[in-house]
Amino acid sequence: MSGFKNFILRGNLVDLAVAVIIGTSFGTVVSAFTTWLTNTIPGIKSVFDGKTDLGKFLNALVAFIILAAVVYFFVVVPYTKAKEKYFPDEAAGTPADVALLEEIRDLLAAK
């Protein structure tokens, strides 16, 4: 079971899943905007006459914002807290490779 926990929390699995969900939803927003824009350009005066797809675009935009909020609060925040709990960041200080290089430098300077 610990191997599965490591797989879920250490890998980029959650990041990739969030990217796919948000990307798909944003694609819907872009598609609705493009449809609205291309239907609006030939007749600028008919932007708000109900014959355009402005409502579909606004619906897609609101749905995207709601989906992004749900994904953030129900996936990203708990994932971040679990990752910090089970895999805390390394303590602040000199990284091991830098400390080793400093030790080598000091030994060479002492000779």
Instruction: Encode the helix/strand succession as letters.
Output: HHHH
- Mind summarizing the main beta sheet? none
Mean pLDDT: 80
Helical amount among residues, as a percent range?
over 70%
Tell me the total number of β-strands: 0
Secondary structure tally, helices: 4
Q: What class would the helix/strand composition place it in?
A: mainly alpha
**Shape summary:** elongated
Strand content: under 5%
Radius of gyration: 25 Å
Unreliable sequence segments: none
Distance between the termini: 52 Å
Which terms would index this structure?
4 helices, mainly alpha, 111 residues, single chain, elongated
Structure report:
By secondary structure, the protein is mostly helical. The protein contains four helices and no strands. The chain has helices spanning 2-10, 13-40, 54-86, 96-110.
What is the fold's blueprint, element by element?
Blueprint: H1 2-10, H2 13-40, H3 54-86, H4 96-110
Short recap of the structure:
77% of the residues lie in helices and 0% in strands.
